[in-house]
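User:
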Amino acid sequence: MATKRKIGANYRTWTNEEVETLKTYYGILDFDQLCKRLKMPPARVHQKVKRLGLGFQKDYQDYVTMRQVCDMLNCGRYRIKILINYGLPVVVKHFGRSYNVMVRIDRLLNFLKKNPSLWDGSKVEYLALGYEPKWLKDKRRTDRILRQQGRALPRRLNTGENREVRLKDE
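Assistant: Predicted structure:
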């Protein structure tokens, strides 16, 4: 006699949100923290990781996704695309059929430090980038003063005119 599979909480299917959470935080969070966030047992999460072909977790420890960069800088996807056009060094990590555009956190910090005119430091929360270097504190303070004076970042940075001005300043 064949055994019947139990139907219930232990055998529910993965939701799209859970799969996206797994892809986003895999390699960034500790495996136990990831299991707690997903509210699933480790064996089930490990099985899904293998099915998605996410690879070794240590390969992704130094990377953040573009969605996380949007959250850190408190900006939208369009601003991130502009940063990529200006030379933000990104890597595309493939996960089976899908992919994530990622950047190493140290390269992100170096890019932001070298290109202060491309982003608004007043929108970055304290410790959002992991640690708080002195140049970031200064940038935040300067941008807050500029914002109070009514001189915020231009909305469109991808025009050739703005790019020439930025290159002259460097």
